[in-house]
Design brief:
two-stranded antiparallel ribbon, 4-stranded antiparallel sheet, 6 strands, 192 residues, elongated
Length: 192
């Protein structure tokens, strides 16, 4: 598993900071205590209160409901307004890096318009899947888009399996296209 390192929270912004903490410095000056206190109040707000404050500060409704994300964005904006944003040099460097980055302008093209939709577990169109259920052999044909069972089209194998059994099934498991978990018995015979 890949672990992403998180930037440490400055001591004045941690949940346990005291109001007298004025250690945060920028360009050789200390951040005013009123800003530190305001940021500490953000940490105590509910998500609903943070969303309302975000709308005040940014002039638009937030899309997120993540408390940490909201308070950090609001805190940054409050500090940015009080202390100034990025330096002109930093802005130029960011713009330069953005220009050098290769960005995809349009999605990749494909000769087969349905290729992006096809699940790799689904057999090729034309394949016949057979499954015995309740003493009857059931035959399902794989189509370019969907499946055919008793003259009816189904969008998924699970929908076809439900039509056969009357209960919900994983279609791939029902037709034996994927195996059961090691603790279960093997899947019944599906042929293609």
């Amino acid at each position: 598993m890949i672990m992403l390192a998180q930037a440490p929270v400055p001591p004045c912004l941690s949940p346990h900071a005291t109001p007298s903490c004025v250690a945060t410095e920028k360009r050789g000056s200390r951040m005013p205590e009123s800003i530190i206190e305001e940021i500490q109040k953000l940490r105590q707000m509910t998500v609903g209160e943070l969303r309302a404050r975000y709308a005040e500060v940014f002039g638009e409704e937030p899309r997120s409901r993540n408390k940490d994300y909201l308070w950090k964005r609001i805190a940054y904006r409050i500090q940015e307004r009080a202390e100034g944003g990025l330096s002109e040099r930093a802005r130029r460097r960011a713009a330069e890096l953005a220009r050098d980055e290769d960005l995809r302008v349009r999605p990749p093209s494909s000769t087969d318009p349905t290729a992006w939709m096809r699940d790799p577990r689904v057999p090729t169109p034309g394949t016949i899947l057979k499954r015995s259920w309740a003493g009857t052999e059931h035959v399902v044909q794989v189509l370019d888009i969907g499946f055919l069972y008793e003259g009816r089209r189904f969008k998924s194998l699970s929908a076809a399996a439900r039509a056969i059994t009357g209960t919900r099934w994983n279609g791939f498991l029902f037709f034996g296209l994927i195996g059961r978990k090691p603790d279960g018995a093997g899947s019944e015979g599906a042929t293609s």
